[in-house]
Amino acid sequence: MWALIKTYGILALMVNLELLLSDPQDYKVWSLVRRFDQPQKYKPFVSRCIVQGDLKIGSVREVNVKSGLPATTSTERLEMLDDQEHILGVKFVGGDHRLKNYSSIITVHPDVIDGRVGTKVIESFVVDVPDGNTQDETCYFVKALINCNLKSLADVSERMAMRGLVSTNQPPTLR
């Protein structure tokens, strides 16, 4: 894979965030992550999201991005949603951002962290390096966005755990 990345100018990075919850049930975190139709539940830069049609593999969402980022819209396709293994895959297929050929996979699973049972969230991505930017610049930008999203996910999940809640809306069933 790394040979392909060097040959075609693609950047790949894995970012990990480990969450320790007082009630370490990974389904609580998954109940947020799996909501392709509501990323704004934990992604602080998303102001609005509209899914076209039924929620299924191949569904497309139009995301409005809050000001402060070098974009206002993103069009994203659901590539994978596995409720058994807790895996979500998304590909950016349009928008006014510079993240061309961006794909990400998020996994959520129980893990032992520092000797305590907790939940681990791993997000991995691949993206083209835009003309005029270096790999380091692209990596720094995307990593900062992912870390912000994962930090927000941790905060929202921790609040849910303290309240004994699962996501307030039941997620739609995949068709």
Task: Please supply descriptive tags for the structure shown above.
single chain, 175 residues, alpha+beta, 7-stranded antiparallel β-sheet, globular
What does this structure look like?
By secondary structure, the protein is α+β, with helices and mostly antiparallel strands. It is built from three helices and seven strands; from the N terminus they run αβαββββββα. A seven-stranded antiparallel beta sheet has the order 1-7-6-5-4-3-2, sandwiched between helices. β4 and β5 form a beta hairpin. The radius of gyration is 16 Å and the shape is globular.
Low-confidence stretches: 1-7, 168-175
The number of distinct helices, counting runs of at least 4 residues, comes to 3
> Number of DSSP strands?
7
- Average pLDDT, rounded to a whole number, is 81
Cα separation of the termini:
32 Å
Concise structural overview:
One of its GO terms (molecular function) is protein phosphatase inhibitor activity. With 175 residues, the protein is of the alpha+beta class. It has three helices and seven strands; from the N terminus they run H-E-H-E-E-E-E-E-E-H.
Layout of helices and strands, plus pairs?
Blueprint: H1 2-8, E1 10-19, H2 26-33, E2 46-52, E3 60-65, E4 73-82, E5 87-95, E6 103-113, E7 116-128, H3 135-163
Antiparallel strand pairs: 1-7, 2-3, 3-4, 4-5, 5-6, 6-7
Helix pairs in contact: 2-3
